């Protein structure tokens, strides 16, 4: 054994020692409830030690031999290829022969089986018909917060915002309703409103309600920008005009946010004055017909 | 001992001749051939760490109340069992957080290793006949890894992943004609269905890992049968493949790479926080985390969703969602082009021959330009996916940034392709010149300051 080999052995041994130390450090950290960091570094050192030892081994202790394999196209001689094809065809005509009608029936049977096998897929979920694009908002329903408490006019100053739901449809059993029915209730200066004529009385005392489900990809339109009076979706930055009936100002959304007409009772209770003005949620094939 | 084992197997299966050859099989020494191995070792690591996590994770939307002081802000909160079990893995299971974080890091490194490996295969023309077959298998593996990554990312039922899942549901709804039915059957109802965590779990730990295992086996079997390509060089020809023998040289080298890969993943898992779901909080579908960015391999698609134009089409009382273009058409087109490239290149160049020697990127300007354009396009979209963070960082409006990325996604890929083309053809010209005009003399400067000419020995 020459000197460089000895040096290599020594180096590999040091690496392996380091690896053992890493394993012990990890085991100790685990047993004593040590931090994730110590555990991770311990195991990593155990691995790096082995890697270092193997690299040293490969570089300094193994012969650097080169081998060559022959490389040639894998294709078989033409005779063999064509024989394979003719056997396949011969077999095919043995099965098929002239029994055309039987073959057709065979394909039909397979087709029927395929369709029959699709039936259980129907059990995977309920029908979307009448579900998509609708919401739980009905005229007269009071606006409540996540915890069920009623939203009152005096709660909101001009320039503030709160997330609201229809009364009776909140709580752990109504997760799906809450995802779909959530609205952003915004209060603005009433004289700043630019609502279309048909919606003139939808925003009493400057209260406006828009669906919180983005018409683009369904994320909650959770950001209220008070300066430009916009609602913005944090997922893809679709931006909607609060004063102008939720129209799209910017971004990938193709459709305005549905608006909920509001009423304010004499005691300040906020109620839905109607149903949502449009299809709630992201576009789907049925949006146009809804 | 070894002798008895080899003999016993050979008695029954006749494996000795195979073994004899296999041990001397040549593996090229170039470093770029090890990128695919990093991916392979990531698969082993993710399988092992994931199996450990399955012992603790509850794939259930069932509501529980969390009682623990590990995360004081969440103590007493109602949340899904899935989210609560992830908190327990992170805080109450020893080594749980390490393994969870290493598992997540491994997913990111796994996808990255595949992409870099594919870039090597692409830009050197390794996918040409007969390896076009394995290109298809490999690309499918990338798609499966992306799918497994996204389903895994969605399992903890935290605020961030919930938003991601909502977007996935919206893209499913955007499929023309059958979108609503497809989304309702796949997710088990409207959003957020209590079925979804359970279904994603089955996909994440059963279907995709099985498919990955089978296709990786196929990928390696094809590789074994077709043998490696190699870079041109002294003694390297179309009809040979040279390198280190599998046993012992290459085995030692490869095991070192495996240990190093594991080491890096454990170091990341131990030291670099990833997906801190306790900061995002349990998922309430009417709230959202901001800013929200997905994992990198989904990021470019999220970027596409941000900068895509709002082109919804209304026809005969029906709607084609604007999400269709960035959410479905774009990924289908992108991956379709990658699947088709080996065959497209064959048609464009008329080169139908077998290729065992690799090309350098400059030797094929057409392919290199296409690859550079594709990478630039995906890169621009990936950057666009964090435009909200950049807007905050540089104090510019996110609208201006979105417009910048809209233009950049269309303009930069052709520009990058043109630059790549120019560089390739320049390099080609230089090589042709040097081949046509080999150096005849060497100019030498002597110690006295004078010059001397020496003829070059021509081989």
What's the total helix number of chain A?
A: 5
Secondary-structure-based class of chain B equals mainly alpha
| Name given to the CATH architecture of the largest domain in chain A | 3-layer Sandwich
For this structure, what is the CATH homologous superfamily of the largest domain in chain A?
Rieske [2Fe-2S] iron-sulphur domain
Low-confidence stretches of chain A: none
Radius of gyration of chain B: 27 Å
**Strands in their spatial order, largest beta sheet of chain A:** 2-3-4-5-10
The total of beta strands of chain B comes to 8
Under CATH at level 1, the class of the domain at 28-281 in chain B stands as Mainly Alpha
Instruction: Characterize the main sheet of chain B.
Output: 2 strands, antiparallel
Question: Helical percent range of chain A?
Answer: 25-40%
Q: Can you put this structure into words, describing what you see?
A:
The complex is a heterodimer of chains A (290) and B (459). Chain A has 5 helices and 12 strands. Chain A is of the alpha+beta class and 290 residues long. Chain A has 2 domains: 3-61; 143-289, 3-layer Sandwich (Rieske Iron-sulfur Protein). In chain A, strands 2-3-4-5-10 form a 5-stranded antiparallel β-sheet. In chain A, helix 1 (3-31) packs antiparallel against helix 2 (36-61). The longest helix of chain A is centred in the first third of the chain and has 29 residues, at 3-31. In chain A, 37% of the residues are buried. The mean pLDDT of chain A is 94. In chain B, a hairpin with a 5-residue loop joins strand 7 (441-445) and strand 8 (451-455). Chain B has a domain at 28-281: Cytochrome Bc1 Complex, Chain C, CATH 1.20.810.10. The mean pLDDT of chain B is 94. The longest helix of chain B is centred in the last third of the chain and has 39 residues, at 398-436. In chain B, the strands form 4 sheets. Chain B has a two-stranded antiparallel ribbon with strand order 1-4. Chain B is mainly α and 459 residues long. Strand 1 of chain A pairs antiparallel with strand 4 of chain B.
């Amino acid at each position: 054994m020459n000197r460089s080999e000895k040096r290599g052995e020594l180096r590999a041994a040091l690496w392996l020692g380091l690896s053992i130390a890493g394993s012990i450090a990890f085991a100790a950290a685990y047993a004593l409830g040590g931090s994730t960091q110590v555990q991770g570094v311990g195991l990593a050192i155990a691995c790096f030690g082995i890697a270092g030892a193997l690299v040293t081994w490969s570089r300094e202790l193994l012969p650097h031999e080169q081998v060559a394999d022959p490389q040639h196209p894998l294709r078989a001689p033409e005779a063999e290829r064509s024989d394979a094809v003719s056997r396949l065809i011969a077999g095919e005509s043995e099965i098929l022969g002239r029994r055309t009608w039987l073959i057709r029936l065979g394909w039909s049977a397979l087709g029927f089986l395929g369709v029959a096998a699709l039936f259980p897929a129907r059990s995977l979920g309920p029908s979307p018909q009448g579900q998509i694009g609708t919401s739980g908002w009905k005229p007269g329903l009071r606006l409540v917060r996540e915890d069920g408490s009623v939203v009152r006019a005096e709660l909101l100053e001009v320039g503030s915002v709160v997330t609201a739901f229809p009364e009776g449809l909140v709580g752990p059993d109504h997760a799906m309703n809450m995802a779909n029915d959530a609205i952003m209730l915004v209060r603005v200066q009433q004289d700043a409103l630019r609502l279309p004529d048909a919606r003139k009385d939808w925003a009493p005392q400057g209260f406006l309600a828009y669906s919180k489900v983005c018409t683009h990809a369904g994320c909650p339109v959770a950001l209220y920008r008070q300066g430009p009076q916009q609602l913005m979706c944090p997922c893809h930055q679709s931006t909607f005009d609060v004063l102008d009936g939720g129209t799209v100002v910017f971004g990938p959304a193709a459709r305005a946010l549905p608006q909920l007409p509001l009423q304010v009772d004499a005691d300040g209770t906020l109620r839905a004055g109607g149903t949502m003005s449009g299809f709630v949620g992201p576009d789907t094939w049925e949006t146009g017909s809804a | 001992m070894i002798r008895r084992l080899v003999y016993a197997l050979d008695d029954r299966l006749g494996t000795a001749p195979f073994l004899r050859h296999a041990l001397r099989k040549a593996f090229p020494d170039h470093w770029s051939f090890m990128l695919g191995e990093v991916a392979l070792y990531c698969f082993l690591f993710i399988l092992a760490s994931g199996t450990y996590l399955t012992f603790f994770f509850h794939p259930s939307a069932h509501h529980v109340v969390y009682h623990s002081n590990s995360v004081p802000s969440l103590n007493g909160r109602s949340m899904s069992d899935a989210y609560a079990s992830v908190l327990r893995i992170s805080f109450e299971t020893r080594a749980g957080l390490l393994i969870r974080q290493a598992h997540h890091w491994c997913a990111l490194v796994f996808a990255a290793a595949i992409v870099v490996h594919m870039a090597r295969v692409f830009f050197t023309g390794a996918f040409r006949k007969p390896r076009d077959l394995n290109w298809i298998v490999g690309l499918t593996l990338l798609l499966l890894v992306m799918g497994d990554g996204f389903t895994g990312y969605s399992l903890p039922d935290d605020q961030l992943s919930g938003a991601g899942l909502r977007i996935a549901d919206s893209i499913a709804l955007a499929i023309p004609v059958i979108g609503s039915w497809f989304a309702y059957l796949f997710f088990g109802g409207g959003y957020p269905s209590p079925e979804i965590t359970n279904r994603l779990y089955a996909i994440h730990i059963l279907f995709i890992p099985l498919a990955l295992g089978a296709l990786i086996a196929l990928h390696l079997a094809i590789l074994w049968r077709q043998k490696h390509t190699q870079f041109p060089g002294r003694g390297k020809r179309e009809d040979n493949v040279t390198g280190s023998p599998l046993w012992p040289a290459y085995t030692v080298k490869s095991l070192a790479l495996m240990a190093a890969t594991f080491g890096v993943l454990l170091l990341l898992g131990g030291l670099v926080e990833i997906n801190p779901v306790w900061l995002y909080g349990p998922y309430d579908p009417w709230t959202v985390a901001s800013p929200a960015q997905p994992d990198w391999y989904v990021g470019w698609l999220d970027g596409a969703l941000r900068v895509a134009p709002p082109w919804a089409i209304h026809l005969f009382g029906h709607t084609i969602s604007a999400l269709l273009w960035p959410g479905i058409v774009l990924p289908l087109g992108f991956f379709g082009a990658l699947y088709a490239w080996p065959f497209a290149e064959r048609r464009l160049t008329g080169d139908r021959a077998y290729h065992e020697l690799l090309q350098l990127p400059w030797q094929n300007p057409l392919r290199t330009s296409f690859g550079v354009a594709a990478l630039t396009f995906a890169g621009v979209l990936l950057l666009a996916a964090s435009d909200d963070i950049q807007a905050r960082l540089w104090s510019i409006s996110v609208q201006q940034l979105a417009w910048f990325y809209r233009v950049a996604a269309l303009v930069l890929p052709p520009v990058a392709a043109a630059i790549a083309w120019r560089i390739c053809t320049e390099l080609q010209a230089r090589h042709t010149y040097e081949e046509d005009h080999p150096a005849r003399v060497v100019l030498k400067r002597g110690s006295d300051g004078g010059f001397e000419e020496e003829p070059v020995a021509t081989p």
